[in-house]
C-alpha cells in the first residue's frame, strides 16, 4: 500500500473522528446535566442537515456567493436544531425526570424513529438520498500523489475549533460553570441560585446545535444526506460517549476518535491481515471492539466518578 | 362466569370480524368501536368486575384464548392471509415473552431482540438447506444457537449497568445486521431461502385436503406456533410465580438489597438472558420456515424497537399483556393499508404517548400477592 493512500485514510479517519467527537460531546453534555440518554440526538443531526439543505434550496436563487449561502445554511440549521432540542427537553425529557432512566431512553429512541419517519414521509421525495451542495472551494494542495483538498482541510479545522470552543465555553464561561455545577449536583446548584430549567434547556440547545453542525459537516464532506444518516451517526456517537465514559467531555472526544480509528483499522488493516475478510466488515469490527471494551471497562475508558450508596 | 364467557365471545367475534374484513371503512369502524367500548367499560367499572371474575377463575383466560385461536383457525381454514397474520401474532408473542423474561423480570433491556430472532431464522435456513436434521429438532438447535451467541454478550451485559448495558445490546443488534449484509455465504442483502418444514416426511407447506375441506398450509405452522406459545407462556408464568421469579424481581428492583439477602445476581441475569434468547431464537426459526425466506432487512434496529415496544405496550412484566399488544402491533398496520406507510411513525407516537401518560402499559403487571385472598376457598 502506498504512502499516499495511507495518508488519505488518515485524513478520512480524522474527519470521521471529529464528526463523531462532536456528536458524542452532545450525548455527554445531556448525560452530565440530567443523567439521561437522549437517543434522538442522531436524528436531530439529520433534521439539522435537512434544514440546512432546505435553506440552501430556498436562498440559492437570491444569493450567489457560496460563503453567504453557507452562512445562511449554518445559521438556519443550527437554529432549527437548537429550537427542536429545547422543545424536546421541555416537553419530553423534563417531564420524565422522575421516571426510570430506561423510559427516557425509550421515549427518545421512539422520538428519533418518529423524526426519521417524518422526514422520509413528508420531506419531498424524502426516502431517497439527497445531493448536498458543494459550497466549499475544492482546489487542492498537491503533496506528491496525494492532494489535500481545501474543503476537507476547512472542515477539519472547523471541527477542531468547534471542539476547542465548546471546551472553553464549558470550562471558562459563566454558563459553562452553571452547566458543570448542575452536572455535579443539581440540587445544590439549585440552592446556589442556578436556574435549573434554564441550564437544562441551554445545554440541550447547545448539544442539538452541535449535532446539526456535525450533520452539515457530514453533508459537506460526502455531498449527500439521507433520512437514515442520523441512526448510524447517533449510535456511533452514543458508543463513543459511552466508551469514553458518560458525562466526561474528554472521554467523548477520545471515544469519537477511537471509533473512527477502529473503523479505519477495520477498513485498512483487516483485509491486509486476513485476506478473505473484506473491508466491508469495518463496522462489524468496530462494534465488536466496542462490546469488548465495555466488558473490560464497564463504565468507560475515563470512568465517571461514582459511588454506590447503600 | 357469565361475564367472562360473554367477554370471551365478544372478543372472539371481534377478532373474526377484524381479521376477515376487507374494507378499510369497516376496519376503521371496528378500531373506533374497540376504543369506545374500552372507554365505556372503564367508566362502568367493567374492568374491575372482569378482574375479579378472572381472579375467581384463574384458569379461564388461558383455556379460552387457546380455544379462541382454534375457533378462528377453523373459521379461516382456507384464507391464507388471515392465518398468516394470526400465526405472526403468535410468533411475535413468543419472542416478546422471551424479551419479557429479560426486561420484565431481571431488568435487562435487550435492544437486539430482532437479532436473536434473526439468528434463529438463519440457523433454520442453513440447517434445513444443508443438513438432514429433522425439522422439529431444527427449532431447538436454532434456539440453542441463539442462546449460545447471546452468551458472548453475557460478560459485558453482566459487568455493565443501565445505559452502558443498553449500548452493548444496541451495538450487537447493529453489528449483527451489518454482518449479514456483507456476508456473502449468508446471502448478503438478498438473504436465504428456507425449505418448507417437514415432519415425518409430511411437507407442511403443501396444504391438505381433509374430507373435501381445503386446508391452508399455514394451519400446521399456526398449530406449532400455538403449541410453542403455550409452552413458553407456561414457562414464563411458572417462572414468575416460583421463587425464581421472586429472585429475579429482586434483582431488577434493587441489586444491592438482593445481594445482601444472598440472591446471586449474576446467576439470575445469565439464566434470564439465556432463556430469553433461547425463546426468541426458537420463534425466529419457526417464522423463517413459515415465510420460507430470511433477509437482513427483517432484523433491523427498528424491528428490535418494535419488539421492545410490544413489551412496553402490553405492560412490562405481564405476559398476559403481550398477546393483545402483539395483535395490535401486527394486525392493525396490515389491515389499515392506508397507514401501512406510516406505521413506524404511528408506533413511535403511540409508544411515546404510552410512556408519558400510562407508563405501565395496557395491562399493568399486578403486585404480587403473598397471601392469597380468602375468596373462593383461597386456593392458589
Explain what the structure shows.
The complex is a heterodimer of chains A (310) and B (380). With 310 residues, chain A is mostly helical. Chain A has a domain at 15-127 and 151-228. Chain A has helices at residues 3-34, 41-59, 66-93, 101-122, 150-172, 174-184, 186-191, 196-222, 229-244, 249-273, 282-296, and strands at 130-131, 140-143, 146-149, 224-225. In chain A, the strands form two sheets. In chain A, strands 1-4 form a two-stranded antiparallel ribbon. Chain B is mostly helical. Chain B has two domains: 1-75, no CATH class; 80-378, ABC transporter involved in vitamin B12 uptake, BtuC (Orthogonal Bundle), CATH 1.10.3470. A two-stranded antiparallel sheet of chain B has the order 1-6. A two-stranded antiparallel sheet of chain B has the order 2-3. Chain B is globular, with a radius of gyration of 21 Å. In chain B, 43% of the residues are buried. Chains A and B meet through helix 4, helix 9 and helix 11 of A and helix 8, helix 9, helix 14 and helix 17 of B.
Q: What is the structural class of chain A?
A: mainly alpha
- Main-sheet strand order of chain A equals 1-4
Helix content of chain A: over 70%
Overall structural class of chain B, as computed from helix and strand content, comes to: mainly alpha
Key words describing this protein structure:
heterodimer, A: 310 residues, mainly alpha, two-stranded antiparallel sheet, 11 helices, 4 strands, B: 380 residues, ABC transporter involved in vitamin B12 uptake, BtuC, two-stranded antiparallel ribbon, 17 helices, disordered C terminus
Provide a quick synopsis of the model.
The complex is a heterodimer of chains A (310) and B (380). With 310 residues, chain A is mainly α. Chain A has a domain at 15-127 and 151-228.
How is this fold's topology laid out?
The complex is a heterodimer of chains A (310) and B (380).
Chain A: H1 3-34, H2 41-59, H3 66-93, H4 101-122, E1 130-131, E2 140-143, E3 146-149, H5 150-172, H6 174-184, H7 186-191, H8 196-222, E4 224-225, H9 229-244, H10 249-273, H11 282-296
Antiparallel strand pairs in A: 1-4, 2-3
Helix pairs in contact in A: 1-5, 1-6, 1-8, 1-9, 1-10, 2-3, 2-4, 2-8, 2-9, 3-8, 5-6, 5-8, 6-8, 9-10, 10-11
Chain B: H1 2-20, H2 24-43, H3 46-56, H4 60-75, H5 80-106, H6 113-130, H7 135-152, H8 154-159, H9 162-182, E1 192-193, E2 198-199, E3 202-203, E4 208-210, E5 213-215, H10 218-241, H11 243-253, H12 255-260, H13 265-291, E6 293-294, H14 301-314, H15 319-335, H16 337-340, H17 343-357
Antiparallel strand pairs in B: 1-6, 2-3, 4-5
Helix pairs in contact in B: 1-4, 5-10, 5-13, 5-14, 5-15, 6-7, 6-9, 6-13, 7-13, 10-11, 10-13, 11-13, 14-15, 14-17
Amino acid at each position: 500500500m502506498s504512502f499516499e493512500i495511507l495518508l488519505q485514510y488518515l485524513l478520512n479517519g480524522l474527519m470521521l473522528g471529529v464528526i463523531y467527537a462532536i456528536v458524542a460531546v452532545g450525548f455527554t453534555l445531556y448525560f452530565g446535566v440530567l443523567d439521561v440518554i437522549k437517543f434522538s440526538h442522531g436524528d436531530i443531526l439529520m433534521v439539522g442537515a435537512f434544514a440546512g439543505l432546505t435553506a440552501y434550496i430556498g436562498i440559492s436563487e437570491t444569493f450567489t456567493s457560496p460563503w453567504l449561502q453557507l452562512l445562511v445554511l449554518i445559521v438556519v440549521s443550527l437554529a432549527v436544531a437548537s429550537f427542536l432540542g429545547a422543545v424536546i427537553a421541555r416537553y419530553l425529557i423534563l417531564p420524565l425526570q422522575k421516571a426510570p432512566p430506561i423510559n427516557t431512553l425509550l421515549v427518545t429512541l421512539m422520538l428519533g424513529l418518529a423524526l426519521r419517519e417524518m422526514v422520509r414521509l413528508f420531506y419531498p421525495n424524502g426516502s431517497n438520498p439527497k445531493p448536498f451542495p458543494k459550497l466549499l472551494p475544492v482546489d487542492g494542495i498537491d503533496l506528491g500523489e496525494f492532494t489535500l483538498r481545501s474543503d476537507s482541510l476547512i472542515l477539519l479545522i472547523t471541527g477542531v475549533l468547534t471542539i476547542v470552543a465548546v471546551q472553553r465555553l464549558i470550562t471558562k464561561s459563566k454558563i459553562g460553570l452553571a452547566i458543570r455545577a448542575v452536572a455535579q449536583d443539581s440540587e445544590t446548584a439549585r440552592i446556589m441560585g442556578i436556574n435549573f430549567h434554564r441550564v437544562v434547556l441551554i445545554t440541550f440547545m447547545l448539544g442539538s446545535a452541535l449535532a446539526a453542525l456535525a450533520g452539515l459537516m457530514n453533508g459537506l464532506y460526502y455531498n449527500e444526506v439521507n433520512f437514515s444518516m442520523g441512526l448510524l451517526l447517533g449510535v456511533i456517537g452514543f458508543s463513543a460517549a459511552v466508551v469514553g465514559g458518560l458525562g466526561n467531555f474528554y472521554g467523548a472526544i477520545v471515544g469519537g476518535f477511537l471509533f473512527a480509528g477502529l473503523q479505519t483499522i477495520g477498513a485498512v488493516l483487516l483485509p491486509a491481515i486476513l485476506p478473505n475478510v473484506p473491508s466491508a466488515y469495518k463496522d462489524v469490527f468496530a462494534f465488536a471492539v466496542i462490546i469488548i471494551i465495555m466488558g473490560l471497562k464497564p463504565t468507560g475508558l475515563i470512568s465517571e466518578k461514582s459511588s454506590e450508596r447503600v | 362466569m357469565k361475564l367472562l364467557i360473554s367477554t370471551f365471545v365478544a372478543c372472539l367475534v371481534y377478532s373474526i370480524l377484524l381479521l376477515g374484513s376487507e374494507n378499510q371503512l369497516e376496519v376503521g369502524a371496528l378500531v373506533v368501536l374497540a376504543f369506545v367500548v374500552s372507554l365505556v367499560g372503564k367508566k362502568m367499572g367493567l374492568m374491575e368486575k372482569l378482574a375479579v371474575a378472572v381472579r375467581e377463575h384463574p384458569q379461564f383466560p388461558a383455556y379460552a384464548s387457546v380455544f379462541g385461536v382454534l375457533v378462528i383457525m377453523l373459521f379461516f381454514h382456507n384464507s391464507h392471509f388471515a392465518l398468516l397474520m394470526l400465526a405472526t401474532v403468535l410468533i411475535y408473542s413468543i419472542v416478546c415473552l422471551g424479551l419479557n423474561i429479560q426486561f420484565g423480570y431481571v431488568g435487562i433491556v435487550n435492544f437486539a431482540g430482532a437479532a436473536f430472532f434473526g439468528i434463529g431464522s438463519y440457523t433454520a435456513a442453513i440447517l434445513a438447506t444443508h443438513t438432514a436434521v429433522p425439522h422439529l429438532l431444527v427449532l431447538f438447535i436454532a434456539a440453542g444457537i441463539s442462546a449460545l451467541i447471546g452468551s458472548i454478550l453475557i460478560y459485558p451485559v453482566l459487568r455493565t449497568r443501565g445505559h452502558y448495558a443498553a449500548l452493548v445490546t444496541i451495538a450487537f443488534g447493529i453489528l449483527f445486521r451489518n454482518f449479514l449484509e456483507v456476508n456473502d455465504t449468508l446471502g448478503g442483502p438478498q438473504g436465504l431461502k428456507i425449505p418448507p418444514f417437514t415432519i415425518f416426511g409430511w411437507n407442511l407447506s403443501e396444504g391438505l385436503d381433509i374430507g373435501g375441506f381445503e386446508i391452508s398450509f399455514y394451519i400446521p405452522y399456526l398449530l406449532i406456533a400455538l403449541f410453542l406459545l403455550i409452552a413458553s407462556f407456561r414457562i414464563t408464568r411458572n417462572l414468575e410465580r416460583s421463587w425464581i421469579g421472586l429472585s429475579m424481581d429482586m434483582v431488577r428492583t434493587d441489586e444491592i438489597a438482593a445481594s445482601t439477602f444472598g440472591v446471586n445476581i449474576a446467576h439470575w441475569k445469565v439464566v434470564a438472558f439465556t432463556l430469553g434468547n433461547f425463546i426468541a431464537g426458537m420463534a425466529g426459526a419457526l417464522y423463517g420456515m413459515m415465510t420460507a425466506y430470511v433477509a437482513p432487512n427483517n432484523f433491523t434496529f427498528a424491528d428490535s424497537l418494535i419488539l421492545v415496544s410490544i413489551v412496553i405496550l402490553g405492560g412490562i412484566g405481564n405476559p398476559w399483556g403481550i398477546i393483545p399488544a402483539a395483535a395490535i402491533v401486527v394486525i392493525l398496520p396490515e389491515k389499515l393499508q392506508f397507514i401501512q406507510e406510516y406505521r413506524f411513525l404511528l408506533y413511535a407516537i403511540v409508544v411515546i404517548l404510552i410512556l408519558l401518560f400510562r407508563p405501565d402499559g395496557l395491562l399493568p403487571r399486578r403486585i404480587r400477592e403473598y397471601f392469597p385472598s380468602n375468596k373462593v376457598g383461597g386456593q392458589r
